[in-house]
Design a protein that fits this description.
With 170 residues, this protein is mostly helical. The protein has eight helices and no strands.
């Protein structure tokens, strides 16, 4: 293995370790079951590895690929036996996933109730993407993303106020 290949491999491995749990969390925010999120993320990371030298923004590319894989897996498994709840528990070694599933289960369920365009931008915001990156990811303008984020916040706030769970004005 040459020095350049070794450097690219190390770079990908660092990316995988830091971003795979975040991609799983992103899919969970979008409402996919944990087992689908795990499988779709693994498939997306294989795709990223295969195209590593061609991808300009792998953190965005991986999320988009994972969404596509998750959608296909969900359609494929629609008529299968339901997955046992025990398998949907977060892994102890992935704090990002545990954080999403355990501490924000109410938020995740509320985000999943949002209309699709609002759900996607809000899930990406929760995944620490900047407004400009969300715009690039969705193909919408920054202004449209800002508008959708505002609408999502307002809808979520009204849902939490109705439940008596809203603490603060953000």
């Amino acid at each position: 293995m040459t020095g350049k290949q070794s450097s690219a491999r190390a770079s990908y491995e660092d990316f995988y370790r830091s971003h795979a749990p975040r991609v799983i969390a992103h899919l969970l925010y979008l409402g996919f079951p944990k087992h689908i999120a795990d499988d779709a993320t693994q498939s997306a990371m294989v795709d990223v590895h295969r195209n590593w030298h061609k991808i300009g923004k792998p953190h965005l590319w991986a999320r988009k690929a994972a969404e596509h894989h998750a959608g296909r897996l969900l359609r494929k498994t629609r008529n299968e036996v339901p997955w046992p709840d025990a398998y949907d528990q977060p892994a102890a070694e992935a704090p990002e996933i545990a954080f999403v599933v355990e501490r924000h289960s109410t938020l995740v369920s509320r985000v999943n109730e949002l209309p699709e365009p609002l759900k996607i931008v809000f899930a990406l915001l929760l995944d620490d993407l900047e407004t400009k990156e969300i715009a690039e990811y969705t193909g919408a303008s920054v202004r449209v993303v800002q508008k959708r984020l505002k609408q999502a916040r307002e809808l979520l706030q009204s849902k939490f106020v109705d439940d008596g769970r809203w603490e603060g004005n953000r």
